[in-house]
Protein backbone atom coordinates (compact mmCIF):
# COMPACT_ATOMS: atom_id res chain seq x y z
CA UNK A 1 0.00 0.00 0.00
CA UNK A 2 2.88 2.36 0.71
CA UNK A 3 4.19 1.93 -2.82
CA UNK A 4 0.67 2.45 -4.20
CA UNK A 5 0.34 5.67 -2.22
CA UNK A 6 3.68 6.95 -3.50
CA UNK A 7 2.76 6.09 -7.07
CA UNK A 8 -0.56 7.91 -6.76
CA UNK A 9 1.19 11.02 -5.49
CA UNK A 10 3.52 11.00 -8.49
CA UNK A 11 0.57 10.60 -10.85
CA UNK A 12 -1.24 13.54 -9.27
CA UNK A 13 1.86 15.72 -9.45
CA UNK A 14 2.18 15.01 -13.13
CA UNK A 15 -1.35 16.21 -13.84
CA UNK A 16 -0.69 19.55 -12.17
CA UNK A 17 2.78 20.39 -13.46
CA UNK A 18 2.90 22.69 -16.47
CA UNK A 19 5.98 20.97 -17.81
CA UNK A 20 4.12 17.69 -18.32
CA UNK A 21 1.08 16.64 -20.31
CA UNK A 22 -2.11 16.61 -18.27
CA UNK A 23 -3.46 13.10 -17.95
CA UNK A 24 -6.92 13.51 -19.43
CA UNK A 25 -9.48 11.75 -21.58
CA UNK A 26 -8.81 9.17 -24.21
CA UNK A 27 -5.15 10.10 -24.50
CA UNK A 28 -4.39 8.11 -21.36
CA UNK A 29 -2.74 4.74 -21.52
CA UNK A 30 -2.18 2.12 -18.86
CA UNK A 31 1.10 1.03 -17.38
CA UNK A 32 0.49 -2.62 -16.51
CA UNK A 33 2.18 -3.46 -13.22
CA UNK A 34 4.76 -6.22 -13.21
CA UNK A 35 3.76 -8.83 -10.66
CA UNK A 36 1.88 -6.45 -8.41
CA UNK A 37 1.37 -9.09 -5.79
CA UNK A 38 -1.24 -9.33 -3.09
CA UNK A 39 -0.27 -6.07 -1.43
CA UNK A 40 -1.63 -3.98 -4.29
CA UNK A 41 -5.34 -3.55 -4.92
CA UNK A 42 -6.79 -4.73 -8.18
CA UNK A 43 -7.47 -1.14 -9.21
CA UNK A 44 -3.74 -0.59 -9.57
CA UNK A 45 -4.01 -2.35 -12.94
CA UNK A 46 -6.25 0.48 -14.14
CA UNK A 47 -4.24 3.44 -12.92
CA UNK A 48 -3.98 6.27 -15.40
CA UNK A 49 -0.53 6.55 -16.91
CA UNK A 50 2.07 8.77 -15.28
CA UNK A 51 2.84 10.64 -18.46
CA UNK A 52 1.99 10.22 -22.11
CA UNK A 53 5.16 8.89 -23.65
CA UNK A 54 6.13 10.58 -26.86
CA UNK A 55 8.95 8.99 -28.77
CA UNK A 56 11.30 11.35 -26.99
CA UNK A 57 10.07 10.41 -23.51
CA UNK A 58 10.18 6.71 -24.32
CA UNK A 59 13.84 7.04 -25.21
CA UNK A 60 14.47 8.83 -21.95
CA UNK A 61 12.73 6.10 -20.01
CA UNK A 62 14.80 3.44 -21.75
CA UNK A 63 17.94 5.43 -21.02
CA UNK A 64 17.09 5.41 -17.32
CA UNK A 65 16.33 1.67 -17.44
CA UNK A 66 12.69 2.06 -16.48
CA UNK A 67 10.58 -0.99 -17.21
CA UNK A 68 7.54 -0.23 -15.06
CA UNK A 69 6.46 2.51 -12.68
CA UNK A 70 6.04 0.05 -9.83
CA UNK A 71 9.56 -1.30 -9.95
CA UNK A 72 11.04 2.11 -10.65
CA UNK A 73 9.23 4.61 -8.44
CA UNK A 74 12.54 5.99 -7.25
CA UNK A 75 13.75 6.49 -10.79
CA UNK A 76 10.51 8.25 -11.75
CA UNK A 77 10.82 10.57 -8.78
CA UNK A 78 14.35 11.44 -9.85
CA UNK A 79 13.12 12.19 -13.35
CA UNK A 80 10.31 14.38 -12.01
CA UNK A 81 12.68 16.39 -9.85
CA UNK A 82 14.97 17.03 -12.82
CA UNK A 83 12.03 17.84 -15.14
CA UNK A 84 13.25 15.19 -17.54
CA UNK A 85 9.87 14.34 -19.05
CA UNK A 86 8.24 16.61 -21.55
CA UNK A 87 4.80 16.51 -23.05
CA UNK A 88 5.97 16.30 -26.65
CA UNK A 89 9.24 15.69 -28.38
CA UNK A 90 11.21 18.94 -28.69
CA UNK A 91 11.05 20.51 -32.11
CA UNK A 92 14.14 21.45 -34.08
CA UNK A 93 13.50 25.10 -33.22
CA UNK A 94 13.34 24.28 -29.49
CA UNK A 95 16.55 22.29 -29.72
CA UNK A 96 18.26 25.24 -31.43
CA UNK A 97 17.01 27.57 -28.71
CA UNK A 98 18.37 25.24 -26.03
CA UNK A 99 21.74 25.18 -27.76
CA UNK A 100 21.82 28.97 -27.93
CA UNK A 101 20.96 29.30 -24.24
CA UNK A 102 23.40 26.61 -23.16
CA UNK A 103 26.05 29.08 -22.11
CA UNK A 104 23.55 30.75 -19.76
CA UNK A 105 21.60 27.80 -18.41
CA UNK A 106 23.75 24.66 -18.46
CA UNK A 107 26.41 23.72 -15.99
CA UNK A 108 29.88 24.92 -16.83
CA UNK A 109 33.21 25.29 -15.06
CA UNK A 110 31.65 28.23 -13.23
CA UNK A 111 29.18 25.92 -11.47
CA UNK A 112 31.90 23.41 -10.62
CA UNK A 113 34.73 25.59 -9.36
CA UNK A 114 33.32 28.92 -8.20
CA UNK A 115 31.48 29.61 -4.93
CA UNK A 116 27.75 29.94 -5.35
CA UNK A 117 27.70 33.68 -4.62
CA UNK A 118 30.36 34.36 -7.26
CA UNK A 119 28.63 32.48 -10.08
CA UNK A 120 26.14 35.19 -11.16
CA UNK A 121 28.95 37.73 -11.44
CA UNK A 122 31.04 35.34 -13.52
CA UNK A 123 28.06 34.82 -15.82
CA UNK A 124 27.48 38.57 -15.99
CA UNK A 125 31.05 38.91 -17.31
CA UNK A 126 30.41 35.97 -19.69
CA UNK A 127 33.38 34.06 -18.28
CA UNK A 128 31.72 30.82 -19.34
CA UNK A 129 31.87 31.86 -23.00
CA UNK A 130 35.03 33.54 -24.24
CA UNK A 131 34.30 34.05 -27.95
CA UNK A 132 33.78 37.77 -27.31
CA UNK A 133 37.19 38.02 -25.65
CA UNK A 134 38.83 36.43 -28.70
CA UNK A 135 37.05 38.77 -31.09
CA UNK A 136 38.18 41.76 -29.03
CA UNK A 137 41.74 40.47 -28.62
CA UNK A 138 42.56 39.54 -32.23
CA UNK A 139 42.78 43.12 -33.60
CA UNK A 140 45.11 43.94 -30.68
CA UNK A 141 47.32 40.95 -31.54
CA UNK A 142 47.33 41.87 -35.24
CA UNK A 143 48.52 45.36 -34.40
CA UNK A 144 51.15 44.33 -31.85
CA UNK A 145 52.56 41.72 -34.24
CA UNK A 146 52.61 44.18 -37.13
CA UNK A 147 54.39 46.75 -34.94
CA UNK A 148 57.26 44.36 -34.13
CA UNK A 149 60.71 45.03 -35.54
CA UNK A 150 61.46 43.34 -38.90
CA UNK A 151 62.55 39.75 -38.39
CA UNK A 152 61.47 39.78 -34.73
CA UNK A 153 58.76 38.12 -32.70
CA UNK A 154 56.09 40.37 -31.20
CA UNK A 155 56.42 41.58 -27.62
CA UNK A 156 55.05 38.63 -25.62
CA UNK A 157 54.60 40.69 -22.45
CA UNK A 158 52.57 43.24 -24.38
CA UNK A 159 50.40 40.50 -25.86
CA UNK A 160 49.72 39.12 -22.37
CA UNK A 161 48.78 42.59 -21.12
CA UNK A 162 46.39 43.09 -24.02
CA UNK A 163 44.95 39.58 -23.64
CA UNK A 164 44.16 40.28 -19.99
CA UNK A 165 42.79 43.68 -20.92
CA UNK A 166 40.53 42.13 -23.55
CA UNK A 167 39.13 39.73 -20.95
CA UNK A 168 38.42 42.54 -18.49
CA UNK A 169 37.09 45.08 -20.98
CA UNK A 170 34.84 42.57 -22.70
CA UNK A 171 33.45 41.57 -19.28
CA UNK A 172 32.84 45.21 -18.39
CA UNK A 173 31.15 45.75 -21.74
CA UNK A 174 28.84 42.82 -21.08
CA UNK A 175 27.94 44.24 -17.67
CA UNK A 176 27.17 47.66 -19.19
CA UNK A 177 25.11 45.99 -21.89
CA UNK A 178 23.10 43.94 -19.39
CA UNK A 179 22.46 46.95 -17.16
CA UNK A 180 21.14 49.08 -20.01
CA UNK A 181 19.29 46.26 -21.78
CA UNK A 182 17.75 44.52 -18.78
CA UNK A 183 14.19 45.34 -19.85
CA UNK A 184 14.83 44.17 -23.41
CA UNK A 185 16.68 41.02 -22.35
CA UNK A 186 13.62 39.69 -20.53
CA UNK A 187 11.74 39.64 -23.86
CA UNK A 188 14.40 37.82 -25.90
CA UNK A 189 14.65 34.04 -25.62
CA UNK A 190 18.44 33.94 -25.85
CA UNK A 191 19.02 36.57 -23.13
CA UNK A 192 16.19 36.22 -20.63
CA UNK A 193 18.27 34.06 -18.27
CA UNK A 194 21.09 36.57 -17.90
CA UNK A 195 21.74 37.44 -14.23
CA UNK A 196 20.26 40.95 -14.20
CA UNK A 197 17.38 40.23 -16.57
CA UNK A 198 16.37 37.17 -14.55
CA UNK A 199 16.59 39.03 -11.23
CA UNK A 200 19.44 36.95 -9.82
CA UNK A 201 21.45 40.18 -9.52
CA UNK A 202 20.02 43.64 -8.92
CA UNK A 203 21.04 46.66 -11.03
CA UNK A 204 22.85 48.02 -7.97
CA UNK A 205 24.89 44.84 -7.64
CA UNK A 206 25.67 44.97 -11.35
CA UNK A 207 26.81 48.59 -11.08
CA UNK A 208 29.11 47.78 -8.16
CA UNK A 209 30.58 44.88 -10.11
CA UNK A 210 31.13 47.17 -13.09
CA UNK A 211 33.12 49.53 -10.88
CA UNK A 212 35.30 46.61 -9.79
CA UNK A 213 35.86 45.55 -13.41
CA UNK A 214 36.82 49.08 -14.48
CA UNK A 215 39.22 49.36 -11.56
CA UNK A 216 41.00 46.21 -12.73
CA UNK A 217 41.01 47.57 -16.27
CA UNK A 218 42.66 50.75 -15.04
CA UNK A 219 45.46 48.65 -13.60
CA UNK A 220 46.04 47.18 -17.07
CA UNK A 221 45.94 50.59 -18.76
CA UNK A 222 48.57 51.96 -16.39
CA UNK A 223 51.04 49.38 -17.71
CA UNK A 224 51.15 51.25 -21.04
CA UNK A 225 52.88 54.45 -22.15
CA UNK A 226 51.20 57.82 -21.67
CA UNK A 227 50.05 58.13 -25.27
CA UNK A 228 48.42 54.70 -25.08
CA UNK A 229 46.73 55.53 -21.78
CA UNK A 230 44.98 58.52 -23.32
CA UNK A 231 44.08 56.55 -26.44
CA UNK A 232 42.79 53.62 -24.37
CA UNK A 233 40.73 55.81 -22.03
CA UNK A 234 39.08 57.48 -25.02
CA UNK A 235 37.55 54.15 -26.03
CA UNK A 236 35.32 54.16 -22.94
CA UNK A 237 32.91 56.56 -24.65
CA UNK A 238 32.32 53.92 -27.32
CA UNK A 239 32.04 51.13 -24.75
CA UNK A 240 29.40 52.92 -22.67
CA UNK A 241 27.35 54.21 -25.60
CA UNK A 242 27.28 51.07 -27.75
CA UNK A 243 24.30 49.39 -25.98
CA UNK A 244 22.16 52.42 -26.80
CA UNK A 245 22.81 52.23 -30.54
CA UNK A 246 20.34 49.42 -31.19
CA UNK A 247 17.59 51.81 -30.06
CA UNK A 248 18.76 54.62 -32.36
CA UNK A 249 20.01 53.11 -35.60
CA UNK A 250 19.83 50.03 -37.79
CA UNK A 251 23.65 50.04 -37.78
CA UNK A 252 24.65 49.09 -34.21
CA UNK A 253 26.97 46.46 -35.70
CA UNK A 254 29.04 49.23 -37.32
CA UNK A 255 29.28 51.00 -33.97
CA UNK A 256 30.34 47.73 -32.35
CA UNK A 257 33.04 47.48 -35.01
CA UNK A 258 34.40 50.90 -34.02
CA UNK A 259 34.38 49.77 -30.38
CA UNK A 260 35.68 46.21 -30.66
CA UNK A 261 38.58 47.04 -32.99
CA UNK A 262 40.03 49.95 -31.04
CA UNK A 263 42.88 47.62 -30.16
CA UNK A 264 44.11 47.86 -33.76
CA UNK A 265 45.07 51.45 -32.92
CA UNK A 266 46.06 50.85 -29.32
CA UNK A 267 48.36 47.88 -29.95
CA UNK A 268 50.58 49.79 -32.35
CA UNK A 269 50.66 52.80 -30.00
CA UNK A 270 51.62 50.62 -27.03
CA UNK A 271 54.63 49.22 -28.91
CA UNK A 272 55.85 52.32 -30.77
CA UNK A 273 54.42 55.24 -28.78
CA UNK A 274 52.80 56.71 -31.90
CA UNK A 275 50.41 55.89 -34.74
CA UNK A 276 51.46 55.16 -38.30
CA UNK A 277 48.15 56.04 -39.90
CA UNK A 278 49.05 54.39 -43.21
CA UNK A 279 49.18 51.06 -41.35
CA UNK A 280 46.73 51.32 -38.46
CA UNK A 281 43.81 53.02 -40.22
CA UNK A 282 43.43 50.27 -42.88
CA UNK A 283 43.92 47.69 -40.12
CA UNK A 284 41.22 49.36 -38.01
CA UNK A 285 38.89 49.56 -41.02
CA UNK A 286 39.42 45.86 -41.77
CA UNK A 287 38.34 45.02 -38.24
CA UNK A 288 35.21 47.16 -38.56
CA UNK A 289 34.22 45.40 -41.80
CA UNK A 290 34.96 42.02 -40.21
CA UNK A 291 32.71 42.90 -37.26
CA UNK A 292 29.93 43.86 -39.67
CA UNK A 293 30.16 40.36 -41.12
CA UNK A 294 30.18 38.30 -37.94
CA UNK A 295 27.84 40.45 -35.88
CA UNK A 296 25.25 40.69 -38.65
CA UNK A 297 25.27 36.89 -38.79
CA UNK A 298 24.97 36.88 -35.00
CA UNK A 299 22.07 39.35 -35.10
CA UNK A 300 20.06 37.02 -37.32
CA UNK A 301 19.62 34.76 -34.29
CA UNK A 302 17.47 37.38 -32.57
CA UNK A 303 15.78 39.07 -35.52
CA UNK A 304 12.27 37.85 -34.68
CA UNK A 305 12.54 38.91 -31.04
CA UNK A 306 14.22 42.19 -32.06
CA UNK A 307 11.36 42.96 -34.43
CA UNK A 308 8.81 42.37 -31.66
CA UNK A 309 10.52 44.55 -29.05
CA UNK A 310 11.55 47.30 -31.48
CA UNK A 311 15.31 46.74 -31.41
CA UNK A 312 17.23 47.65 -34.58
CA UNK A 313 20.04 45.72 -36.28
CA UNK A 314 21.72 45.25 -39.63
CA UNK A 315 20.01 41.85 -39.81
CA UNK A 316 16.65 43.64 -39.97
CA UNK A 317 18.02 46.41 -42.18
CA UNK A 318 19.44 44.06 -44.82
CA UNK A 319 16.74 41.37 -44.69
CA UNK A 320 16.86 39.12 -47.75
CA UNK A 321 19.84 41.07 -49.12
CA UNK A 322 22.05 40.18 -46.16
CA UNK A 323 24.45 37.94 -48.07
CA UNK A 324 25.07 40.59 -50.71
CA UNK A 325 25.94 43.10 -48.00
CA UNK A 326 28.14 40.58 -46.19
CA UNK A 327 30.00 39.86 -49.42
CA UNK A 328 30.77 43.55 -49.81
CA UNK A 329 31.96 43.81 -46.21
CA UNK A 330 34.12 40.71 -46.64
CA UNK A 331 35.81 42.13 -49.75
CA UNK A 332 36.43 45.43 -47.94
CA UNK A 333 37.87 43.57 -44.94
CA UNK A 334 40.37 41.57 -46.99
CA UNK A 335 41.27 44.58 -49.14
CA UNK A 336 41.95 46.72 -46.06
CA UNK A 337 44.10 43.98 -44.52
CA UNK A 338 46.11 43.72 -47.75
CA UNK A 339 46.68 47.50 -47.79
CA UNK A 340 47.74 47.54 -44.14
CA UNK A 341 50.16 44.65 -44.64
CA UNK A 342 51.63 46.26 -47.75
CA UNK A 343 52.18 49.58 -45.96
CA UNK A 344 53.76 47.72 -43.03
CA UNK A 345 56.21 46.03 -45.45
CA UNK A 346 55.13 42.50 -44.56
CA UNK A 347 56.79 39.83 -46.66
CA UNK A 348 55.13 37.31 -49.00
CA UNK A 349 53.97 34.73 -46.36
CA UNK A 350 51.35 37.24 -45.25
CA UNK A 351 49.46 36.99 -48.53
CA UNK A 352 48.80 33.20 -48.68
CA UNK A 353 47.42 33.43 -45.16
CA UNK A 354 45.32 36.39 -46.26
CA UNK A 355 43.99 34.21 -49.08
CA UNK A 356 43.08 31.53 -46.52
CA UNK A 357 41.29 34.16 -44.44
CA UNK A 358 39.38 35.27 -47.53
CA UNK A 359 38.39 31.66 -48.17
CA UNK A 360 37.16 31.37 -44.58
CA UNK A 361 34.97 34.46 -44.94
CA UNK A 362 33.68 33.16 -48.28
CA UNK A 363 32.74 29.87 -46.63
CA UNK A 364 30.95 31.66 -43.80
CA UNK A 365 28.92 33.93 -46.04
CA UNK A 366 28.07 31.38 -48.72
CA UNK A 367 27.03 28.55 -46.40
CA UNK A 368 25.36 30.30 -43.46
CA UNK A 369 21.66 29.54 -43.11
CA UNK A 370 20.30 32.85 -41.89
CA UNK A 371 16.99 31.24 -40.96
CA UNK A 372 18.72 28.80 -38.59
CA UNK A 373 19.74 30.14 -35.21
CA UNK A 374 22.06 27.20 -34.64
CA UNK A 375 23.90 27.68 -37.93
CA UNK A 376 24.23 31.43 -37.40
CA UNK A 377 25.77 30.69 -34.02
CA UNK A 378 28.19 28.15 -35.51
CA UNK A 379 29.37 30.58 -38.17
CA UNK A 380 29.73 33.35 -35.60
CA UNK A 381 31.90 31.16 -33.37
CA UNK A 382 34.11 30.22 -36.32
CA UNK A 383 35.44 33.78 -36.46
CA UNK A 384 37.93 32.90 -33.75
CA UNK A 385 39.67 30.87 -36.46
CA UNK A 386 39.56 33.78 -38.90
CA UNK A 387 41.37 35.98 -36.39
CA UNK A 388 44.02 33.31 -35.84
CA UNK A 389 44.63 32.90 -39.58
CA UNK A 390 45.18 36.63 -40.05
CA UNK A 391 47.47 36.84 -37.01
CA UNK A 392 49.55 33.90 -38.29
CA UNK A 393 49.96 35.62 -41.65
CA UNK A 394 51.12 38.85 -40.02
CA UNK A 395 53.55 36.92 -37.82
CA UNK A 396 55.26 35.05 -40.66
CA UNK A 397 55.20 38.13 -42.86
CA UNK A 398 56.99 40.11 -40.14
CA UNK A 399 59.53 37.38 -39.32
CA UNK A 400 60.72 37.25 -42.94
CA UNK A 401 60.75 41.02 -43.47
TrEMBL record:
Gene Ontology biological-process annotations: isoprenoid biosynthetic process; ubiquinone biosynthetic process
Primary localization class, coarse: endoplasmic reticulum
Protein name per Swiss-Prot or TrEMBL: 4-hydroxybenzoate polyprenyltransferase, mitochondrial
E.C. numbers: 2.5.1.39
Co-factor requirement: Mg(2+)
Location in the cell: Endoplasmic reticulum membrane; Mitochondrion inner membrane
GO cellular component, one term: endoplasmic reticulum membrane
Catalytic activity line of the entry: 4-hydroxybenzoate + (2E)-geranyl diphosphate = 3-geranyl-4-hydroxybenzoate + diphosphate; an all-trans-polyprenyl diphosphate + 4-hydroxybenzoate = a 4-hydroxy-3-(all-trans-polyprenyl)benzoate + diphosphate
The organism's place on the tree of life at top rank: Eukaryota
Biological role: Catalyzes the prenylation of para-hydroxybenzoate (PHB) with an all-trans polyprenyl group. Mediates the second step in the final reaction sequence of coenzyme Q (CoQ) biosynthesis, which is the condensation of the polyisoprenoid side chain with PHB, generating the first membrane-bound Q intermediate. Prenyltransferase involved in the biosynthesis of shikonin, a naphthoquinone secondary metabolite. Could accept only geranyl diphosphate and not dimethylallyl diphosphate, farnesyl diphosphate, or geranylgeranyl diphosphate as substrate.
Xref: Pfam families: UbiA
TM ranges: 131-148, 160-180, 200-221, 254-271, 277-298, 325-344
Species of provenance: Castilleja foliolosa
UniProt key word Transferase: yes
Pathway(s) annotated for this protein in UniProt: Cofactor biosynthesis; ubiquinone biosynthesis
Amino acid sequence: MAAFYRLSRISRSLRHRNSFLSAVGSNLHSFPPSNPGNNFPHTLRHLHHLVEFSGDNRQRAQFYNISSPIRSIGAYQELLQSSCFCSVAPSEKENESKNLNRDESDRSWIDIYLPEKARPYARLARLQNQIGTWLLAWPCMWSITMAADPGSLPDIKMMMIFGTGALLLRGAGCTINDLLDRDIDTKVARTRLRPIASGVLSPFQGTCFLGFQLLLGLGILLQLNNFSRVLGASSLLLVFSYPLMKRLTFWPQAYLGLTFNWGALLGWAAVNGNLDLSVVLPLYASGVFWTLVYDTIYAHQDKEDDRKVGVKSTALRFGDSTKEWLTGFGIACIGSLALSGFNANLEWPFYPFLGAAAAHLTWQISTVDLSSRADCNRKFLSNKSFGAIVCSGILFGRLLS
